[in-house]
């Protein structure tokens, strides 16, 4: 059997279901194909469950600091079973919400594995989707336009093949039934840092192994240095410039063992578990790309800045195109792709316009390029920086670590980058995103009235500090 649609979406994660909703809003007939649960990695194995665990870890850590606030707390502990129950309730509530949105927008959802087919009796061009349904039947969906949103999965390293017991992927680490006494985290990017933060806050002894010369190597160097200082203060051992020697990896019923090589020598490491957090790879296998002219680039689907593939009726959004593996980037791309298909004015996707967030307890949030990237691009820059320890609200909250850093062009006053590390700064980066969207200068952003006492004052002061006009430094 076959059925025709104006738009078919392959993949039901944030990019996929957002594309389907926007297409339905524009009056298109829409089908969405998902082999597992609607919501994808972000909802079930990424953004939401990790943040739920991080929140529990934050609450537990704050109990340890309760006496600083005049609160005497006794006999508190982590009940990991209830932590997991809370996480699962949040995920399920949001999952039901996505299912409701599909019904509300009259989107046909096909639960099954979708695979692209080439020119056939159904269509003279590639891109129809054969869906293998749960009952064993196959239905062919024939779209005018196809949007690929198949997402990604955890990457592994040679010799570090996850076994689900002692060597875990980030997916498996989300289901820990209890907090390990010790853990080795391989990878100092976003995922590795978040797991280091939450497990350390819950009492585990954490060692991080990062191949680059610093944590969060894609962020501004000042941010990396501040996070490393905080991790050291919290008792997290960080080995940078370190390479895991795959031939030394072993595991048994009690522990995992491996050696990490640094310029200063080899370090032997032993822990209850190891978590491999070295990035993610695109889900491009088994979906029939070989039946199309779509091109892969380093394992990702190559698209132009408008998310269009080499097949002009097929688009790819989210993790699968490798532009930026963030849920909100996927959602933004999804809307852009659908609106371009609908003939609306299109805005090219630019990585520099996407906010980036890391939900460690001392959070990181950034937008645009770093100071070094600006200099490498030949820009003459001026820097504004303001520490949270100078803010009344930070003192009240009990988290005075970190700062806001603004990188601006010396000639035009354009904001090139905003970099924050501090308590709950992920709630502040939206203002920087709006300033960038409106092409505001640092002076204009600093002139906006910010309420007192709030953490947002740090952003205003950093903007003013670009020209040496901060009021509270």
Write the layout of secondary structure elements.
Elements: E1 2-10, H1 14-25, E2 30-34, H2 40-45, H3 47-64, H4 80-104, E3 108-117, E4 128-133, E5 138-148, E6 152-154, E7 167-169, H5 170-173, E8 182-186, H6 190-201, E9 205-209, H7 221-233, E10 237-239, E11 243-251, E12 256-262, E13 265-271, E14 273-276, E15 280-282, E16 296-297, E17 300-301, E18 314-316, H8 327-341, E19 356-358, E20 363-368, H9 371-376, E21 381-387, H10 392-397, E22 403-409, E23 415-422, H11 429-437, H12 442-447, H13 457-465
Parallel strand pairs: 1-2, 1-5, 2-3, 5-18, 7-14, 8-9, 8-14, 9-10
Antiparallel strand pairs: 3-4, 4-5, 6-15, 11-12, 12-13, 16-17, 19-20, 20-23, 21-22, 22-23
What does this structure look like?
With 473 residues, the chain is α/β, with parallel strands linked by helices. The protein folds into three domains: 2-153 and 281-351, 3-Layer(bba) Sandwich (FAD/NAD(P)-binding domain), CATH 3.50.50.60; 156-278, FAD/NAD(P)-binding domain; 362-465, Enolase-like, domain 1 (2-Layer Sandwich), CATH 3.30.390. It is built from 13 helices and 23 strands. It has a five-stranded mixed barrel with strand order 1-2-3-4-5. A five-stranded parallel beta sheet has the order 7-14-8-9-10. The protein starts with a strand and ends in an 8-residue tail after the last helix. The mean pLDDT is 96.
């Amino acid at each position: 059997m076959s059925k025709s649609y104006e738009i078919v979406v392959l993949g039901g994660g944030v990019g996929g279901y957002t594309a389907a909703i926007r297409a339905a809003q524009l009056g298109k007939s829409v089908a969405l194909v998902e082999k597992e649960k609607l919501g994808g990695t972000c909802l079930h194995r990424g953004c939401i469950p990790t943040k739920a665990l991080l929140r529990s870890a934050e609450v537990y850590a704050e109990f340890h600091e309760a006496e600083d606030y005049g609160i005497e707390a006794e006999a508190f502990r982590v009940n990991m079973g209830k932590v997991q129950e809370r996480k699962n309730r949040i995920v399920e509530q949001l999952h039901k919400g996505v299912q409701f949105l599909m019904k509300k927008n009259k989107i046909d959802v096909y639960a099954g594995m979708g695979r692209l087919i080439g020119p056939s009796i159904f269509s003279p061009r590639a891109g129809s989707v054969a869906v293998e349904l749960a009952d064993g039947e196959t239905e062919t969906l024939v779209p005018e336009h196809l949007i690929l949103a198949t997402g990604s999965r955890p990457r592994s390293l040679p010799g570090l093949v996850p076994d689900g017991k002692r060597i875990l992927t980030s997916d498996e680490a989300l289901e820990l039934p209890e907090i390990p006494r010790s853990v080795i985290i391989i990878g100092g990017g976003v995922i590795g840092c978040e797991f280091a933060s939450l497990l350390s806050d819950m009492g585990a002894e954490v060692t991080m192994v990062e191949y680059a010369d610093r944590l969060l190597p894609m962020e501004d160097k000042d941010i990396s240095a501040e996070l490393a200082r905080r991790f050291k203060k919290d008792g997290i051992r960080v080995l940078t410039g370190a390479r895991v020697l795959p031939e030394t990896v072993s595991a048994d019923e009690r522990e995992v063992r491996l050696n990490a090589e640094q310029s200063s020598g080899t370090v032997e490491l032993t822990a209850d578990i190891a978590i491999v957090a070295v990035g993610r790879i695109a889900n491009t296998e088994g979906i029939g790309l070989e039946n199309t002219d779509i091109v892969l680039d380093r394992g990702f689907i190559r698209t132009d800045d408008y998310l269009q593939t080499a097949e002009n009726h097929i688009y790819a959004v989210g993790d699968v195109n490798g532009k930026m593996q963030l849920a909100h980037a996927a959602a933004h791309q999804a809307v852009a792709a659908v609106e371009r298909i609908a003939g609306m004015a299109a805005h090219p996707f630019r990585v520099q316009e996407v906010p980036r967030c890391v939900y460690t307890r001392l959070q990181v949030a950034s937008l645009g390029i770093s100071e070094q990237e600006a200099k490498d691009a030949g820009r003459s820059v001026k820097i504004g920086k303001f520490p949270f320890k100078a803010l009344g609200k930070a003192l009240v909250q009990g988290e005075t670590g970190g700062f806001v850093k603004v990188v601006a062009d010396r000639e035009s006053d354009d904001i090139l980058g905003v970099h924050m590390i501090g308590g709950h700064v992920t709630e502040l980066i939206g203002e920087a995103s709006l300033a960038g969207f409106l092409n505001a200068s640092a002076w204009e952003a600093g002139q906006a009235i910010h309420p007192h006492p709030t953490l947002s004052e740090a952003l205003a002061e950093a903007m003013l500090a670009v020209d040496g006009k901060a009021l509270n430094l």
